[in-house]
Amino acid sequence: MTVRQIAEYLQLNEKKIYALATEEKIPATKVTGKWMFPRELIDRWMLESAHGGVFTDRLVIAGSEDPLLYRTLLRLSNNMKSHALVSYTGTGTRLGLELLSAQKVNASCLNWGEVEESPQRHPALLQNYKQHQQWVLVRAFKRERGFMIHPDRKPEDCSSESLLSSELKWGIRQDGSGTLHFLNELLAQHSMKIKDLSSTVKVFSNRETAALIVSGQVDAATGTRSVATEFGLAFVELGWEALDFAVRRDVYFRKIFQTFLEHLRSQVILKQARQLGGYNFSESGKLIWGGEH
């Protein structure tokens, strides 16, 4: 729809429409220099903006995957029953942020580098997306990362250089995933690239990778201790990373998201975290970035 059409549709003057579009407060795009407004996104925006609108009882999360998040959201979904839609899809960090920017999801999980660098790296990553000023970063937890290896294929020398130079068949995540970013940084430390690995198989989630390792189709991959524990794999620790939520500011204050954070820090989930191993909840629920805007 054009500016005139959207003004008539919303019963607002055209000057107000221009202001909303310029401030990125309404779904809009420029085509040959003119503002255009997709009808479907406008209707969605109106529902989202309405007090008590249908989307206030929805929590759709994408991005980095984690077994503990799956368990938490399953419990939340069971408790909410038909009162709310709760969904979680592991897409990898960058695709999750693209979905958040396109307003297809309410929140996205991300991990991008070592835990000590996350206060700088995560906000910097968000700033690549047009909608980032409307987002905040919330800490989920810290988790241990390293190599997941089939128990029968674990060599005596488990140093990074030795493993990466070995004849192991590696599971390689898709572009834009935090796990692949981690592997690329490890390889760079040894002046290597993906093409230098002995053999590779492309995979799209840490759990898929672990299942392929168990079945013998893959020997090793980068991943987290919790996934290795779930699948009975050997694990070689290489440090810690932060898993954060990028979430729209209005969603952050919704009851359903705050209830989710409460579930994440519940005794039931903390017990499961101890059983899986490799979790640190010391900053869980903390507002990391964006709260000052």
TrEMBL record:
<dbReference type="GO" id="GO:0003677">
    <property type="term" value="F:DNA binding"/>
</dbReference>
<dbReference type="Pfam" id="PF12727">
    <property type="entry name" value="PBP_like"/>
</dbReference>
<feature type="domain" description="Helix-turn-helix">
    <location>
        <begin position="1"/>
        <end position="47"/>
    </location>
</feature>
<dbReference type="Pfam" id="PF12728">
    <property type="entry name" value="HTH_17"/>
</dbReference>
<dbReference type="InterPro" id="IPR010093">
    <property type="entry name" value="SinI_DNA-bd"/>
</dbReference>
<dbReference type="InterPro" id="IPR041657">
    <property type="entry name" value="HTH_17"/>
</dbReference>
<dbReference type="InterPro" id="IPR024370">
    <property type="entry name" value="PBP_domain"/>
</dbReference>
<protein>
    <recommendedName>
        <fullName>Helix-turn-helix domain-containing protein</fullName>
    </recommendedName>
</protein>
<feature type="domain" description="PBP">
    <location>
        <begin position="82"/>
        <end position="264"/>
    </location>
</feature>
